[in-house]
Amino acid sequence: MTDHTWSGGALIRPGILAFTGSIGVTDTHAHHAVQVMTASSPMTVVDRRGQPHRGTHVIVPADTPHRIQTASRGFRHDVENLSPTRT
Fold first, then answer.
1. Where do the record's region annotations for Disordered lie (predicted)?
2. CA distances from 69 to 14, 42, 53, 54, 82 (A)
3. 25-83, pLDDT tens digit by residue?
């Protein structure tokens, strides 16, 4: 079974979404923000070509399709989405 559950807290302000907690897998998606992910254990993020990137620090450029393939439950993950423009 694939776990899509996210659990934690978020801070939302103009131009930023910051999340900390446990993350789950995602379907392929993109957002109009740079995504910076750090974790206390390795996670796997798959790019638009299907290439996996594994590590404790992952940066996803704005408007880039990607998905989280694996993330360890119970470990801390920090996810920041930084908008390149604000309106």
1. 68-87
2. 28, 11, 10, 10, 22
3. 899 999 888 888 888 888 899 999 999 999 989 999 999 999 999 876 655 667 777 77
